[in-house]
Design a protein that fits this description.
The complex is a heterodimer of chains A (about 190) and B (about 400). By secondary structure, chain A is of the alpha+beta class. Chain A is built from three helices and eleven strands, in the order αββββββαββββαβ. By secondary structure, chain B is mainly alpha-helical. Chain B has two domains: about 220 residues, no CATH class; about 100 residues, Tetratricopeptide repeat domain (Serine Threonine Protein Phosphatase 5, Tetratricopeptide repeat), CATH 1.25.40.10. Classes of the chains: A alpha+beta (about 190), B mainly alpha (about 400).
């Protein structure tokens, strides 16, 4: 179980309890992932819905895209299994992209990952407007090297953020081209 | 010289026997170079632990820098005296205040501990503590008891499954399996007691022993909800340890005037890594503790701007009322030091931009771009500059 991050573990617990079900996402139909944001899947995915939508190709402990949409000011990006919300860092409407990058780093740290390093923070298109993108490198509790790709936009006091994470060996490189296309396909109201 | 130290340590052991009346009887020390008889139950335990040690050696999280390993390993050798050949030190890249000794003489030191310590004396007292765990065979007795009561596979097999890649897996798994090497609170007190003696026998300033526990106690106070670290979980409350060690330090301090701290040697060995360790600490997302830690390091080691920078980052990321002013002050403090990270300018720029001080933001971001032309966020900073 320690291979799994806490979110993945929660997803599996909910699944076992019948609270969460995996549904198949088709490759060729746009999907609304929250807060009026739509993406084109590009390939088939397994979708879990807990407090946000998660897509995975090979299992949530292997690779996953988290669609963290409509995050309001004063709220954490997500709930972390075993960590009280009051201990989680929260989004602030005044945050700049660098601050939001640090918010993601802290949230991942709270999930139990170590040595989280962001990089390549840059403006990028998001749903026809301007958002920002950055990469992540981190290590699981078991010493597995992971990589991440993030795209986000801030609108007034709301944050939409996509996060893809996978082991850096094979899995990240295997899926990152198609994930980039998923991110680039985002359409927003 | 080595013989002298060995005699010295033996005298320390004799003193401990006399003082406690039973410590030496209770914790029989193995002879230097000891290995268990192949027909003993201990040999089976060692074999499993040897496998774990072999995996540490190949872990990507093992810090392989020769100079740092030579420094920490040399310090352990100095403290362990004639037991030096029996002890191997592994520094692992985990941002937690932790260290532990395995029954076969492997001692694991986390980089988070090296970030927290301010000088060689503080590190020496922690290492003396861990050396005592090995010499007094604390965790071995626990493992033996567990094996006798629940069976070998129950201990090592279940532990392996519970750790995902297993007890014998990665370094980080070993961190998670630290409980396997856990010690009772009495044993922790024994390790504190003997570790203090080992440190002071080697001339380390006795006040540094309670000091490092005081730091931990202060951090615990900052957020009582936090889960205790593995190192602390089975230890007497740090406040109690601090009090006990402070009494011992007060008694020992007047006995000589040439106590050593070796702050310069410690920083010469660790400075090349501190920027990374600060980033690792900040990435844990525990800003209440980080603020307390960096505030202390910045106050106690004021010549090093990296701690002021860490403090500024912790305040900015904590983002509580009054943190903006505190972060700005810390960044400015960092910039007054020779080793100021260029990111201090970025921090000031972010604060200024959010506060509506466009001129200040422009000035700070321009300084940052000039001092860190290849920064990984340069495109974002350039974008900010177009908005100001």
């Amino acid at each position: 179980m320690k291979h799994l991050n806490r979110l993945a573990a929660l997803a599996l617990v909910l699944l076992a309890a019948g609270c969460a079900q995996a549904t198949l996402v088709s490759a060729d139909k746009p999907v609304t992932v929250g807060n009026g944001v739509t993406v084109m899947p590009q390939r088939q995915w397994n979708q879990f819905s807990a407090d946000h939508i998660v897509w995975t190709a090979d299992g949530p402990n292997v690779n996953s895209i988290h669609f963290l949409t409509g995050v309001k000011a004063g709220k954490p990006l997500l709930h972390v299994f075993g960590v009280a919300d009051k201990e989680l860092p929260v989004f602030d409407a005044k945050m700049l992209p660098n601050d939001i990058q640090d918010l993601v780093v802290s949230t991942i740290g709270k999930q139990g990952y170590q040595n989280v390093r962001p990089g390549n923070l840059t403006p990028c298109p998001f749903g026809g407007g301007t958002g920002f993108c950055f990469d992540l490198d981190f290590v699981t509790r078991d010493g597995l090297q992971m990589k991440g790709m993030t795209m986000a936009r801030k609108q007034a006091d709301t944050l939409d953020l996509f996060l893809f994470e996978a082991p850096s060996e094979y899995f990240y490189g295997d899926l990152s081209p198609v994930v980039s296309k998923v991110f680039a396909s985002a359409q927003a109201k | 010289m080595k013989l002298k130290r060995a005699l010295s340590l033996s005298c320390a052991g004799l003193l401990l026997m006399t003082a406690s009346g039973q410590a030496a009887d209770r914790y029989a020390m193995p002879p230097p170079g000891y290995t268990p008889d192949m027909s003993s139950d201990e040999a089976g335990i060692w074999m499993q632990v040897d496998k774990a040690e072999a995996n540490i050696k190949t872990s990507p999280q093992l810090v392989r820098d020769e100079k740092l390993n030579a420094y920490v390993g040399g310090l352990v050798c100095k403290l362990a005296a004639e037991y030096c050949p029996s002890i191997r030190v592994y520094i692992v890249d985990v941002p937690e205040f932790n260290a532990y000794a395995m029954p076969n003489g492997a001692v694991v030191v986390y980089t988070g501990l090296l970030l927290q310590a301010e000088n060689e004396a503080q590190l020496a007292f922690v290492l003396g503590h861990e050396i005592t765990h090995y010499l007094h065979r604390h965790s071995l007795e626990h493992l033996r008891m567990a094996v006798n009561t629940t069976g070998f596979l129950a201990v090592f097999g279940i532990a392996a499954a519970g750790a995902g890649v297993g007890l014998l897996g990665s370094v980080a798994s070993l961190a998670g399996v630290g409980a396997i090497y856990s010690n009772s609170r009495d044993e922790e007190r024994d390790a504190d007691d003997q570790g203090f003696r080992i440190g002071t026998q080697n001339g380390y300033a006795p006040g540094q022993a309670p000091a490092i526990w005081r730091f931990v106690a202060d951090e615990e106070k900052a957020n009582p909800d936090r889960s205790k670290s593995l190192f602390l979980a089975d230890h007497p409350e740090s406040a109690e340890r601090m009090t006990t060690l402070q009494k011992a330090a007060d008694t020992a301090a007047p006995t000589r005037s040439d106590w050593i701290v070796n702050e310069d040697a410690f920083h010469a060995a660790t400075d090349p890594f501190v920027v990374k360790w600060v980033a690792d600490e900040l990435s844990k997302g525990r800003m209440e503790q980080s603020v307390v830690m960096f505030r202390r390091l910045a106050a106690n080691v004021p010549s090093r701007g990296i701690y002021q920078y860490g403090l500024g980052e912790a305040y900015r990321r904590r983002n509580q009322p009054n943190d903006v002013a505190a972060a700005a002050s810390a960044y400015r403090g960092a910039l007054a030091c020779a080793d100021a990270p260029a990111e201090s300018w970025r921090g000031l720029g972010l604060l200024a931009m959010k506060g509506g001080d466009n001129a200040g933001a422009k000035e700070s971001f321009t300084q940052y771009r000039a001092k860190a032309p290849d920064a990984s966020d340069k495109a974002m900073i350039d974008f900010y500059l177009t908005q100001l």
